[in-house]
């Protein structure tokens, strides 16, 4: 994978100037892509494990090692995907790409590239300080931020229950302080499942929770692709990072680990017609 600088690093992530509050729905038809996580393990036909930066270290000074097909970090339990971040050290003898990290976790990337349409991911989040769960999208190639990034859900454990939705592009990104997004407080995000939703259209991107939109960004700014690169299919990413410039801003509570992000299902509906 092209070495993107991923995630936002600033506390100002999720500027509220793109906040909306209105109903949001998903189609009644069958999804074009879905994973209900009802099998015995992660479906390797639908997901790949991203381990590309383990030896060199992950972006944003994150502290985790992302394992591949390791039950301790990714498994199916009672019809849900569990991504578990653990405080533990590995060994070069068993994990050749281990870069000396003191935490392990998993980063899953959809094998299918998904574009315009409606998305719904039902998940329960971890709230331990130092945990950084995310449900988000990147293109398969291109330079960050020019190629774009769609953050459907991000949360940092030191600021629990505050859910961030954000878009990044060449003209609008956290490195410039121009990122476009919103945030919403969900008091039960770590104790109950919630539906994180995306409606991606050529003219707008809307993100919501539990049938209520809380962010909308319109494709109405000059600048061409620098303002709106969201014109081709992206990959969907599910991961739980540890620490980092934003996630670890208030330190890491080692006593709080292991931490889990549970995903009940992922569903995507392609545009009709």
Automatic annotation (TrEMBL):
Keywords: Glycosidase, Hydrolase. PROSITE patterns: GH16_2. One of its GO terms (biological process) is carbohydrate metabolic process. Pfam families: Glyco_hydro_16 (PF00722). Its EC number is 3.2.1.73. The keyword Hydrolase applies. This is GH16. It comes from uncultured Sphingosinicella sp.
